[in-house]
Each structure stands twice: as structure tokens, then as C-alpha cells.
Amino acid sequence: MSLLLVEDDPELAEPLTALLVHQGYQVTPVRDGQTAYTLAKQNTYDLLILDWMLPQLDGLSLCQRLRREGWTTPVLFLTARDGLTDRVQGLDAGADDYLVKPFAFAELAARVRALLRRPPGTATPTRLQVGTLVLEPEQRLAYRGQRQLVLSEKETQLLALLMQYPGQILSHAQLLAGLWPGESPADRNLLAAQVRLLRRKLEPPPEPPLIQTLYGRGYGLIHPGMGTSGV
After folding, report:
1. Do residues 58 and 158 share a domain?
2. Is the dihedral of CA 121, 118, 141, 145 positive or negative?
3. Using an 8 Å Cβ cutoff, are 27 and 17 in contact?
């Protein structure tokens, strides 16, 4: 597995690179956002580990630019910005996960593994279809009619969960467990941010909505001709 590590602090970047290499990963360390952008466009990586505050091009802007250009590689933010607003902003920019400094390497390693592979026993079908909505999880591509949507890893996971239970409401707890398995419970605001990102791609005006919100309970995918019920 090939990782692009973007961290401008050598006191963190050097030991982190060594530890990841020891874990068996191929690591390309970079210290500024512009160089990272160039490498990301020229090469194929399995994961981008990204600091927020970087010279030349900050991590948030880098992530936003790559996502706008259709780059679907998972992104893990490493940052000292620990506020909920910061985490939501990072997810809005297209990040798949967010780890606050200082952190234990064991936790980082677990986050990396989770982003690089599906959790055991949760295989996703290679193709899902509900009405005119089609999802190909392996390619992180969805189609609403003739319109193609390029999704992030977390957007793909969220849509796959909803499409496997069309017409049903999945609780916040069910969705959080599916998106962040094996971790301490994530904040519902992070889930809401992921839903908002997915809606932007699925439901641009004037297209009718596909995701239903049941206040205080969860979310569901609207199925033509069906109501929604809890699961």
C-alpha cells in the first residue's frame, strides 16, 4: 500500500514515516501542499495523510481542490485543530477521517487500516440499484439516471448502507457504527456533515430528494412507491 504523507514538522514527519514503513507501507513524505498536489496528480496512492496547516497550499484547500477534480483516494487529516467546527469543516472539504494531535501511533495505525480496507464481515455488493440510482462501490461511482457522481470513500460507504435498506430509516447509531466501526461513538454532527455532502451530489436542484431525515432518529433512502420505516 502506498501512502502520501504531508506534514511540514520534521519532528513528527520523520518518526511517523519510519513507523509507517515498519508497518509495511510505502510512504512518500512531503512538507508542503503544492508539492503534495503535484504528486497526487502524477501518481497513484492508496491513502493521503494530510496536515491542515501547510506552507504554499494548506491542507484544507488541497483536499478541496483534489475532490473537485475527481480525486477519490481516502484522506485522513492530522491536525491540532480539535473543535467540532474544524472537524465538520474537514469532512466538508472531502476528508474521510480526522485525527487530532497529539495522538497515539496505535490509534493512527488503526485509522489507516480502517481506511485501506473494509471491516471484516461487512462486504458490500459490487453493484447496488434502487430505481434509477446505481452505485458501484469498488469504483466509488454512482449514477442517478444518466448523471455520474464521483464519491469519496465515506460517501460511498454511507450511500451503500442506505441503498441496502431502501424505504427504511437507519438510526444514527446504525449509521455511525457502519461508517466508523470499532471506534468510540462519533458525534452525530459528523454524520450530519457526511449526509450533507452526499446530498449535494445526489440532489442538486431541481432534482427531487432521495435521502429522508427523520428528526431524532436517523436517515433513509426514499424508494419510489414506498414509505419509510425504522429498522
Report:
1. no
2. positive
3. yes
Pull the grid cell for residue 109: 495505525
- pLDDT class of 125 with cuts at 50, 70, 90: low
- Is 19 in the same domain as 64? yes
- Total domains in the fold of the chain: 2
Q: From CA 137, how far away is CA 122, in angstroms rounded?
A: 13
Q: Is the pLDDT of residue 9 over 60?
A: yes
The chain-wide mean pLDDT, for the chain, equals 84
- List the strands of the sheet with 229-230, edge to edge: 211-214, 218-221, 168-171, 229-230
What's the domain range around 65? 2-116
* Prediction pTM value: 0.60
Among 59, 91, 116, which residue terminates a domain?
116
Task: Name 134's bridge partners.
Answer: 129, 143
Distance CA 53, CA 121 (A): 37
**Are 66 and 139 in a shared domain?**
no
CATH code, domain carrying 88: 3.40.50.2300
Confidence of residue 167 (pLDDT cuts 50, 70, 90): confident
Same domain? 89 vs 137:
no
pLDDT at residue 185, rounded to an integer: 52
